């Protein structure tokens, strides 16, 4: 149990570091949103930064609308290959298990053989790992990683 908590804490801390790094730079003035980014967990770096658009916003909003509850802690394994960051056009209020929080970004965890998970941070930068039921296949196809 202690290893699971440590693994989850390390993952969250590393994502917060990546989030705060210059890799997540602001959007150019001619683009309305910050870019969607793909973080390769094994490589330890952002491998794709692509313009954010209305379709990415629709994907993220559908994921948020289909949240079913808080997720159990992540296990200490190598099955999570990619984390996708989708900055939201405007902050969104999420209600889950009696908790309300406001998020600016959605992080999608793509793990082999496991259901996808969402990670959001509240106003105090506290992490919330969430279960949801929306299909991510159209998003994966659009972003192109992993290749189908």
Task: Describe, in plain words, how this protein is organized in 3D.
- The chain is α+β, with helices and mostly antiparallel strands and 148 residues long.
- Helices cover 26% and strands 38% of the residues.
- The protein contains three helices and seven strands, in the order H-E-E-H-E-E-E-E-E-H.
- The chain has helices at 2-20, 54-65, 137-143; strands at residues 36-40, 45-50, 67-70, 80-96, 99-111, 117-121, 127-132.
- A seven-stranded antiparallel sheet has the order 2-1-4-5-6-7-3, covered by helices on one side.
- The longest helix has 19 residues, at 2-20.
- The radius of gyration is 14 Å and the shape is globular.
- Mean pLDDT is 81; it is low at 1-28.
Short synopsis of the structure:
The protein has 148 residues and is an alpha+beta fold. It has helices at residues 2-20, 54-65, 137-143, and strands spanning 36-40, 45-50, 67-70, 80-96, 99-111, 117-121, 127-132. A 7-stranded antiparallel β-sheet has the order 2-1-4-5-6-7-3, covered by helices on one side.
